[in-house]
Design brief:
The protein is mainly alpha-helical and 284 residues long. It has 16 helices and four strands. The strands form two sheets. A two-stranded antiparallel ribbon has the order 1-2. It has a two-stranded antiparallel ribbon with strand order 3-4.
Length: 284
Amino acid sequence: QLIKKCNFGSSLLDLHINSSKQTLLHIAAKFGSGKVVKALIEGKASVHVQDMRQDTPLHLACEKLPKSQEAVLAIIHAGASRYIQNNKKQTPGSFVPSKLRAWFRKAAPLTPEEKKQVGGGMNSFANKGLDIALIRQKLSQADRIQHGLLPYKEVLNILIQGGMDKKAAERNVKDYLGSHSKEKKDRIKWKDFISDFVTMKLVQCVMLLGNAKIFGKIDVDNTQTLTLKEFSKHIDGQIGKEEGMRHAKKLFHKIDTNRDGRISKFELKLWYRQRLKAVNEGKT
């Protein structure tokens, strides 16, 4: 009632109120308070503001599920994106307990924009494989005195030369710098960067297999499972044959929990959930 009576407006409601650069809506979402969240949204508080960790109010509300279901619904209905990532590349859905995943998907229908973001993003990723071994080689050649450091622009240019579009290259380097706050733009530890990038790329490769069409193309023998050969071919197509040889077999055996020499869709989901849990707990 106080918020409604005072008519603060978005300019005041969206001010940072703590050292984590959070707004009143962040705080209300963090406590899972549906009534306060609704009042702030009615008062024109933005659901899109990101704090120091690049969390939106929806990220924080999802962390408090199931207590915060009312708050989550209010934030989604106010237009919050369910696919925006924080500086650890976590979406709000990363924090949703498994038993509430179906509820979260049905909480509000996907907007045309979100459908384009999910579908289009996956398709463009599937069509754009990269030769990471070549990128690694070019980074090494650019590091003429072998001190392990390269400037932002040089790393960016090499990624573009390696087949990545400019926007994706900028986003990847900025994401790396965001999660390595002690590093400076003109002194990027390129070996750490490429290691983080390969890890992220491999996770994306597994995510792609959740797409029925992509899985169907790779599953050439129509068994609804993938052999090491089929899986390796998929990885090679995304990160290059040389880099694929370094990672595909090891990743395959991690996912193949049944040890039957084949990966099922269930095993893919299980591995991905475990990966998300490890990220949430701060493990590599």
